C-alpha cells in the first residue's frame, strides 16, 4: 500500500542525503511490516536519500529484531530502524515478545554504536495494525524514518 500522500511538510526535515540507514524488518505479519517498510523507504526517497545509503535486512520475527539490529549497528550505518508487527493472540506470547523486543532494542540504544528507532506495532487486532501501516492513522514507518533522520544527526 502506498503512503506517498504524506501529510508532512518535507521542508522541515533536515538534510539527510549523507546519512547511512539500516532497516531491519521482521517477516512475521509480513503484509503489515512490508507496508511499514514502504512507508520508511518512500519518506527517505522523498527527501532525496540515495538508495545506496539504505541497507535492508530481513529477520524471521520481532524477537529476532534485537540480534538483527545489533548486527546492523556494526554495518557502518548512522541509524537503524527496527520494523515489526506483533498482534495479540490467545496466549501470553504477545507479552513476552513485546517485552523482550522493546527491552532488547532499548539496550541497543544504550550500548550500541548508533540509535535504533522502534517501529514495532504492538496491536490488539489486525485492523489496528492495518490502520497504522498506511491506513486511517497514517504509516508509522514514515514517522520512524523521520525519527531516524533526526537521531542520526544528533
Ligand atoms: C511466535 C510468534 C507469534 C505467536 N506471534 C508473533 C507476532 O505477532 N509478531 C512477530 O513479529 N513474531 C511473532 N512470533 C515469532 C517470534 O517473534 C519469533 O520469531 C519466534 O518466537 C522465534 O524466535
What are the defining features of this structure?
single chain, 154 residues, alpha/beta, Rossmann fold, 4-stranded parallel β-sheet, two-stranded antiparallel ribbon, 5 helices, binds ligand DLZ
Structure description:
With 154 residues, the chain is an alpha/beta fold. It has a domain of 107 residues: Rossmann fold. The chain is 42% helix and 22% strand. It contains five helices and six strands; from the N terminus they run E-H-E-H-E-H-E-H-E-E-H. Strands 2-1-3-4 form a four-stranded parallel β-sheet, with helices on both faces. A two-stranded antiparallel ribbon has the order 5-6. Strand 5 and strand 6 form a beta hairpin. Helix 1 packs across helix 5 and helix 2 packs parallel to helix 3. The structure holds ligand DLZ.
The helix/strand series, from N terminus to C terminus, equals: EHEHEHEHEEH
CATH architectural label of the domain at 16-91 and 124-154? 3-Layer(aba) Sandwich
Distance between the termini: 31 Å
The fraction of residues in strands falls at 15-25%
Can you count the helices? 5
| CATH-assigned homologous superfamily of the domain at 16-91 and 124-154 | Lumazine/riboflavin synthase
Major sheet: 4 strands, parallel
CATH classification, class level of the domain at 16-91 and 124-154? Alpha Beta
Amino acid at each position: 500500500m502506498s503512503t506517498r500522500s504524506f501529510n508532512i511538510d518535507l521542508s522541515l526535515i533536515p538534510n539527510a542525503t549523507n546519512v547511512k540507514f539500516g532497516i531491519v524488518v521482521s517477516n512475521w505479519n509480513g503484509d503489515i511490516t512490508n507496508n511499514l517498510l514502504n512507508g520508511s523507504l518512500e519518506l527517505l526517497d522523498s527527501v532525496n536519500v540515495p538508495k545506496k545509503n539504505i541497507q535492508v535486512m530481513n529477520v524471521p520475527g520481532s524477537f529476532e529484531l534485537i540480534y538483527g539490529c545489533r548486527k546492523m549497528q556494526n554495518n557502518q550505518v548512522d541509524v537503524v530502524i527496527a520494523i515489526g508487527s506483533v498482534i495479540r493472540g490467545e496466549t501470553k506470547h504477545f507479552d513476552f515478545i513485546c517485552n523482550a523486543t522493546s527491552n532488547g532494542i532499548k539496550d541497543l540504544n544504550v550500548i550500541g554504536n548508533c540509535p535504533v528507532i522502534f517501529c514495532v506495532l504492538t496491536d490488539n487486532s489486525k485492523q489496528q495494525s492495518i490502520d497504522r501501516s498506511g491506513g486511517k492513522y497514517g504509516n508509522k514507518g514514515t514517522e520512524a524514518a523521520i525519527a531516524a533522520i533526526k537521531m542520526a544527526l544528533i
